[in-house]
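# nightly structure sweep
# worker-07 picked up a monomer target from the shared queue
# config: single-sequence mode, recycle default, output format = structure tokens
# input follows
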Amino acid sequence: MSTQKLYAGVKLRELRGRLGVTQKAFADKLGVSLPYLNQMENNHRPVSASVVLSLAQEFGFDVTELTAGDAERIVSDMREALADPVFQSAAPPLADLRLAASNAPALARAFLDLHRAYRQTHERLASLDEALGRDDTALRPSPWEEVRDFFHYCDNYLDAIDRAAEHYAMPGGVRKDPLFIASDTLTKAGIDLQFADTGQLRAFDAGAKRLAISGRASGPTQRFQLLYQVALTTQNELLEATLDLARFATPEARDIAKIGLANYFAGAALLPYRAFQEAALAERHDLERLADIFGASIEQVAHRLSTLQRPGSKGIPFFFVRVDQAGTITKRHSATRLQFARFGGACPLWNVHRAFETPGQFLRQLAETPDGVRYLCLARDVSKPGGSFNAPVRRYAICIGCEVQHADAMVYADGLDLRGQFEPIGISCRICERRDCHQRSVPPLERRLKVDPDRRGILPYQIAE
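# output follows
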């Protein structure tokens, strides 16, 4: 597989803008001519190795930011949007989409916002959701979608909140028991902490300053809920400032996002960045060992691994996804080139769907996406009991993975033939180009079809080359 050239014009322009220097001064520092810099900034030339080295030496720039997955996420989202039947003409070539994502990301996001508004309006009319005659039918994303996209495009890493959580959990650089420090913080704030025999995970009475945590919940859940309350109690100014910068369109989106930010603080305090990253490397990313060391759940550990994107100290780029029993994606994030569908479920060829069949076991899969990138995927079921016989049990499956070039850093690669057979997986049928997939549900976007009523193979049609 050929090496992909690095086009990072937007990143170069952003860096030069932050430094407040002219193109000429920037070119001199990088040791290139002014026309050459201009071509790189407009993505007419790839960023050379010497420029990458100069960026690191002259400006202390974290060069891994040049390959951040923002453009890949935009390309994946645009391909999925263009698969909508409303676009009856031939879709733009992939090269054009990549050019738009690299050179005009703001315009690409505006297109995605427009398509999302169309889709939402279409679904309202189709379901007769009393949209006619109402005053609040403005074309805007649902609050949930708006918050999801906020985390999606900030790479699921919030530096200020992450560092604040690390400082809280490791005063003086020493990690403290999160249950102890959280209980102590809340008590000092005048909050009466109780562990109650209730099905509610957490209930806070602001007037009485009383916090009840479910005694039926698992230890990791109790610690997480305590740290969540710490975030709301001690980090409110930081959370509000972050929300101000996000500029959400509705109060509902802001409220949902605040919960997400408090959850982020709780996860980052339970698994503080540097300590967790060092342990992950030492334990070769063994999820069970890391869960035991930090008193966390398997899902919390897997999700945290995908957020280790601190500039200058990035971890192995992982993707993380959680699906329900219907195959619907309920959590998603990718620091890799693999991007998930914005709507619908995950590819049925993925091992994450088989995890429900083997509860309590880790399933390993060597998988290859249509773009030729190979991954080591790890899937497991996650059951969340309600704490009593009559309480409902929530069942999910999680999957975490990295590109195969990083597989040696994972204990789960032991015994696997990394040069052997890789199973084909995709993202979404409409943007998957595989011609002979036995699980295909709809035709691919960018291929012509041939229908022969006298022949039937795996599919009722043939996909042209």
